[in-house]
Amino acid sequence: MATKDTSPVNQGEGRGMSTTRRMFHMAWRMRGFQVGLGVFLLMVLAAIILPEITEISATKISVRERFLPPFFLEGGTLKHLAGTDQLGRDLLLRSLIGLRNALAIGVASVVVMFILGCGLGIVSGYWGRWIDTILMRFTDAQLSVPLIVLAITILGVTRPNAGTVIAVLVLSGWPIYARVVRSVTLSERQREYVRGAKILGASDLRIMLIMIAPNILPPVAFVAVLDVARMMIFEALFGFIGIGIQPPTPTFGNIISDGTKYIINYWWIPTMPGLCLIIMLLSINVMGSGLERSRNKIFAGVS
User: Fold this and answer.
1) How many domains does the chain have?
2) Residue 4 covered by a domain
């Protein structure tokens, strides 16, 4: 008769992923999370599909169609639902492309930050001693440099593109993940399943990657989701002050920056991309909040 393996080692390997599945399952049952996810997916699909299937160009200048208002105002047309800018370019299309660029930069930045920060955090917390001291002092030094100073220093002396913007965001954000993961690893390495694995001869690499790493996902999952929104805000900020991705590529920052010159008479130019950004940020924050509530319920023992 087969018996269930309840050894500390196997418990350690399965506990983290089980907690993660429960966290996402509990979040999915929340109406707010469902609404946030639905809005998020709808906007992502629109940003990916609409610019590819429409016949309108986001960069083509049309002097005859300058300053057209949104369709619901007098003078607006269904051809340009959100109106046009000072050069006659479609604002809805440019906003969707800006959303696509901002989301791609935000997700890529968080993925790299997550991998780098979690890797260094696990190493620092597991091995401790002089390795922990060096890595934590390095994170302290990195956190002491304000993001805007780092951005101006790097992006101001190079030609800004998606790669350099991602690099700046990663440099500023990875220490947060390293600190959170280090604190969780310090707790996990004292647990029974880690001691049992060492007795059975498991290598340090196996313990860190297979046993401890899955258990750090719940505490940092919602942080990563919220960080996507934070990185999108910074990308828009860089574009607004002129150190982000440069025109003619549309970004939230450069569209809003150009539109502020005409905000009195043509308010829709900065408003439409700003509204698009706000809706996306709200949907991401609602999803992150749902994950945080479900995580707190799990740790509190609420099913």
Assistant:
1) 1
2) no
CATH number at residue 185: 1.10.3720.10
CB-CB neighbours of 80 under 10 Å: 22
| Residue 72 lies inside a defined structural domain of this protein | no
Nearest to 244 by CA among 164, 157, 172: 164
Q: Are 197 and 10 in contact (CB under 8 A)?
A: no
Report pLDDT digits (tens) over 103-162.
999 999 999 999 999 899 999 988 878 888 899 998 988 888 889 999 999 998 888 899
Q: Range of 295's domain?
A: 14-53+93-299
Angle between helices 8-28 and 217-240 in degrees, nearest 10: 50
DSSP 64: G
Dihedral sign, Cα of residue 249, residue 252, residue 254, residue 260: positive
pLDDT of 31 above 50: yes
CB 207 within 8 A of CB 185: no
Kindly report, residue by residue over 58-98, the tens digit of the pLDDT.
888 988 999 999 999 999 999 999 999 999 999 999 999 99
Q: Give the angle subtended at the CA of 49 by the CAs of 47 and 55, to the nearest 5°.
A: 105
What is the pTM (predicted TM-score) of this model? 0.86
Measure the CA–CA gap between 28 and 4, rounded to whole angstroms.
Answer: 30
Grouping H, G, I as helix, E, B as strand and the rest as coil, residue 77 is strand
In a domain, 78, yes or no: no
Whether 9 is in a domain gets the answer no
Distance of alpha carbon 255 from alpha carbon 106, whole angstroms: 18
- Please say if the pLDDT value at position 168 is more than 80: yes
What DSSP line would sit under 213-230, residue for residue? Answer: GGGGHHHHHHHHHHHHHH
Long-range contacts made by residues 186-189, C-beta under 8 angstroms, separation at least 24? Answer: 186/125, 186/128, 188/125, 188/212, 188/215, 188/216, 189/125, 189/126
